[in-house]
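Page 37, continued from 36.
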């Protein structure tokens, strides 16, 4: 186990990545395939219905979008969607939010370790990082798919334990990110430019509307930690 005195934990979808460019077409193609096979008879979820599930665990997502379906169908849908997402990422017509790469580069130049903490699948998180050349920038990529955690609270707790992180900032766009941060006694930054609904980020220590605002918050918090 490492001993990291201070780190930053980033959610992926709606925080670093403009996820709708990947997930909306991948979900749509998945449901269309299921309809073509006669497995799914309901209307294909709208873009709003799809973006509303961002940040949920995979189990929660399929319970919401495929209610009443057996576990085998949900697992198959999961695999199909992942394949569509990876293909879309390979095509390259996807984007990070403005200033994400520049801000991460600045954190890196200052020697501040940072992680991904996401409820997504392991291969998906790795695919996103590979798409943008970010894999080696992160200390590690923690995902629910990789560790089979039931909640983001558990995922963040495992990350902090595994790396001996003493102090950290949790950055994310959904209630689950704020909850995970607070459950683990972290300073939380809510990203209002993601997919959060009105009031969803209440309870965050600070709310930002531009990713580049992460840097001064991290610097200020790091100084406070150093001063004890």
């Amino acid at each position: 186990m490492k001993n990291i005195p201070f780190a930053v934990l980033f959610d992926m979808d709606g925080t670093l990545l403009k996820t709708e460019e990947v997930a909306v077409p991948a979900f749509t193609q998945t449901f269309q395939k299921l309809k073509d096979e006669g497995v799914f008879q309901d209307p294909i979820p709208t873009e709003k219905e799809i973006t509303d599930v961002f940040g949920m665990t995979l189990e929660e997502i399929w319970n919401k979008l495929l209610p009443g379906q057996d576990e085998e169908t949900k697992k198959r849908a999961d695999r199909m969607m992942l394949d569509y997402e990876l293909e879309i990422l390979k095509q390259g017509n996807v984007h990070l939010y403005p200033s994400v790469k520049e801000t991460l580069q600045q954190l890196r130049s200052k020697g501040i370790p940072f992680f991904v903490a996401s409820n997504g699948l392991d291969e998906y998180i790795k695919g996103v990082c590979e798409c943008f050349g970010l894999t080696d920038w992160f200390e590690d990529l923690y995902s629910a798919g990789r560790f089979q955690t039931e909640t983001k609270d558990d995922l963040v707790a495992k990350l902090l334990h595994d790396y001996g992180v003493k102090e950290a900032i949790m950055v994310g766009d959904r209630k689950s990110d704020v909850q995970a941060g607070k459950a683990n006694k972290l300073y939380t930054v809510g990203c209002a430019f993601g997919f959060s609904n009105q009031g969803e980020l209440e309870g965050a220590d600070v709310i930002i509307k531009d990713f580049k605002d992460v840097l001064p918050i991290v610097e200020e918090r790091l100084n406070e930690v150093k001063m004890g």
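The chain has a mean pLDDT of 95. Flag for discussion at group meeting. The first strand starts at residue 6 and ends at 10.
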